[in-house]
Design brief:
Blueprint lengths: L11 H4 L32 E6 L14 H9 L14 H4 L2 E6 L10 H14 L3 E6 L5 H12 L3 E5 L19 H7 L9 E5 L10 E4 H7 L1 H12 L4 E6 L21 H9 L6 E7 L10 H18 L4
Parallel strand pairs: 1-2, 1-3, 3-8, 4-5, 4-7, 5-6, 7-8
Helix pairs in contact: 2-10, 4-5, 5-6, 7-8, 9-10
């Protein structure tokens, strides 16, 4: 196929017959799905299901991450023409990837949301697909990990973030984007000794045994040293990756609720994700993209690339 196919390809989110391969419809038109994948609630034979959780509440500063999934999908329309650069293979040719759409919930019934997320992700996992989730604030990762751990046991977590999100919170009724990791460790969902947080640049008195690779160490020691440390910590354990977009410096991702200077550059994040090729990736998420605070769209573009890299990591062993 070639770009000339845009003359007759449109709305590939609904009309594509082959679930694998690139899409050549015009980036500025057509029904917007992630990477122009087919929208489907049928997960038979699906390898990766991309899904959105458009939920945010009580974030630290700037709300708006409920618009993250929509913006990330739109930004992803720039990517589906060619294999992601530098991987050496095309994950969209190797994997059957669908856009599973967004999770339904009643915005006025906030307390019901975590259970709905857990059930939503559980359905994807039970179908044998790996979930790649577009958030949403970081509170969504806790019920995702509940769904994962219920089926795979405690996982090794690789967290890209400016904040450790392990502040103490023993109230089971609180839904907080800043305490998901504390609760996940307390509930036995995450093996802290096999987990690492990358890009951290805020203080926390207790990281609960999770290894910390702060942003300064990545800047100072380089990407290869960071990847070696990640490998030593996670070993050969099944891995879940959560990527808070504020792991990136605000210069690269201004559209987030909690920007903190001194963060990762986009090239560093790209190299770190690329360096995870070969891990047993159960699934992953990209959260905290808040498009109202970035009129350039750069933050959503970064989020779309992160999600694409997660798909590529998942497909690496099957290339």
């Amino acid at each position: 196929m070639a770009l000339e196919d845009a003359k007759h390809q449109v709305d590939q989110a609904f009309t594509r017959a082959d679930p694998r391969g690139p899409s050549f419809e015009n980036a500025f038109g057509g029904a917007t799905s992630f990477l122009r994948r087919r929208y489907s609630k049928d997960l038979a034979g699906v390898d990766v299901a991309v899904t959105g959780i458009p939920f945010d509440q009580a974030v630290t500063n700037r709300p708006g991450t409920r618009f993250g999934p929509r913006a990330i999908r739109e930004a992803s329309t720039l990517q589906p023409y060619d294999p992601p650069y530098g991987w050496g293979y095309d994950p969209l040719a190797v994997l059957n990837v669908v856009d599973y759409g967004d999770m339904a919930f009643d915005y006025a019934m906030t307390r019901d949301v975590p259970a709905r997320i857990e059930a939503h992700l559980g359905a994807i996992l039970d179908a044998g697909a790996a979930p790649v989730t577009l958030g949403g604030d970081h509170s969504i990762t806790l019920p995702i990990l509940r769904a994962v751990a219920a089926r795979r046991g405690p996982v090794a977590l690789i967290q890209f973030d400016a904040h450790s999100d392990s502040w103490a919170d023993d109230d089971p009724d609180r839904i907080d984007h800043g305490t998901f990791l504390y609760k996940a460790i307390r509930e036995g969902l995450v093996d802290a000794a096999a987990s690492v947080s990358v890009g951290i640049r805020t203080e926390n008195p207790d990281t609960l045994g999770v290894s910390i690779l702060d942003a300064a160490s990545v800047h100072r020691d380089g990407v290869e040293a960071a990847l070696a440390r990640i490998g030593r910590v996670t070993g050969d354990r099944p891995v879940y990756v959560t990527f808070d977009i504020d792991a990136l410096d605000p210069a690269f991702a201004p559209g987030t609720g909690t920007p903190v200077w001194g963060g990762l550059a986009s090239w560093q994040a790209a190299a770190l994700l690329r360096g995870l090729a070969g891990v047993d990736l159960i699934g992953g998420d990209v959260v905290e993209v808040s498009p109202p605070y970035d009129t350039t769209g750069a933050t959503a573009i970064a989020g779309a690339h992160v999600a694409t890299e997660l798909i590529a990591i998942r497909g690496w062993r099957r290339r």
